[in-house]
Write a structure and sequence with these properties.
Largest sheet: 7 strands, parallel
Radius of gyration: 22 Å
Distance between the termini: 21 Å
Order of helices and strands: EEHEEEHEEHEHEEHEHEHEHEHEHHH
CATH superfamily of the largest domain: Glycogen Phosphorylase B
CATH topology of the largest domain: Rossmann fold
Number of strands: 15
Shape: globular
CATH architecture of the largest domain: 3-Layer(aba) Sandwich
Helix content: 25-40%
Number of domains: 2
CATH class of the largest domain: Alpha Beta
Number of helices: 12
Structural class: alpha/beta
Strand order of the largest sheet: 5-3-1-6-7-8-9
Length: 391
Amino acid sequence: MSDRYRIFVPHASETFTNYRPHGDGLVAFEVASRLAARGHEVHVMATTMDLTGSLPATLHLHPLSKPVHMGARGILDYLPQVRATYARLRRTGPFDLIHQLNPVHAGISLALFGTRVPVVLGAYVSPWPPGADSPSIMGAAEGPVAAFLRRAVTAVQQRLASAIVVTTPAARAQIVVPALERAKVFEIPHGIDPGLYDRGAAEPEEGAEPTIVFLGGTERRKGIYELLEAFKVVLRACPEARLLIAGAGGREGQIAALVETMDERSSISLLGVVERADVPQLMHRATVFAAPSYGEPFGMALLEAMASGIPVVVTDAGGAAHIVDSAGGIKVPVADAAALAAALIEILRSPQRAQAMGRYNRQKTESVYAWDRVIDRIEAMYARVLAGRRT
């Protein structure tokens, strides 16, 4: 690509990081750093920055002069810092684009209203379903007035934007003005580096214990309780099966206490937090990956499993429902432990089918979700936005 752009990122997740277990921050870093590696000049703001190693020369970081917590009050404190940083940088040259990365907090891009620079919002991920014990971006106990105000601010923000990015069709639920969809919505998923998860030509060891891996938060919305219930049935059908549970989310103690009461406890391992560098090794122990979430907004752990060449079982909800094809996994209803157990048993009992599913998933991550492919699509979107601006 010949065009190189000067891009201002007014918000890049609560934590902009390239190594901590923070999904939004890791995705934001990949987008910004890979754009910079291609020669674009990228200026990034975030509430917290925690990075290691060398960075591209054209990736510029702008820590806050006053740290804020991104609730409703925090956003109001954040906006003046956004405007001041932009104004200072603007004195050294014009920007081509403003790109507010994930999560797209309501109102932040409005701090730059009047700059006459195209604004890109996203990528948005799908919302958690109501009652899925997820905190609101305006606070854990958002009332009707706050919800109305957030929606109104979001509507203004989206109307003024030149482009809106969604990761999956499910994320279109975040667009509060449906009439905007055709005009300026681009579907671009999050990406992954398949090379990090390559196990080479090796297939799963013959005779190895059939293993189910879960990697994610231990909150109820992740489907962890349904998975434990389903595993009771799985173990009766496949007595040699094992369940590995990795991740944290505030309910580790409750999960551990529950597992201790189960007759199946000797076949369940609670691994706690797994460092990013160790995730490929964990995935390569899996016969099947289970993600029984109530409506996963996107599913980076799911992509990690697919890139590792293993089949998956997911719920038919949220972003995951649009990522997984029948050739690579099985979708089950939300909160249906019986259906989850049946799907897991079906894969565990069919080694050849499981291997074929894994190969399909690996190929799909390479052709659709590899970061190089994703950044190609982001650059193409930028070109369309700027072309439309010139006409």
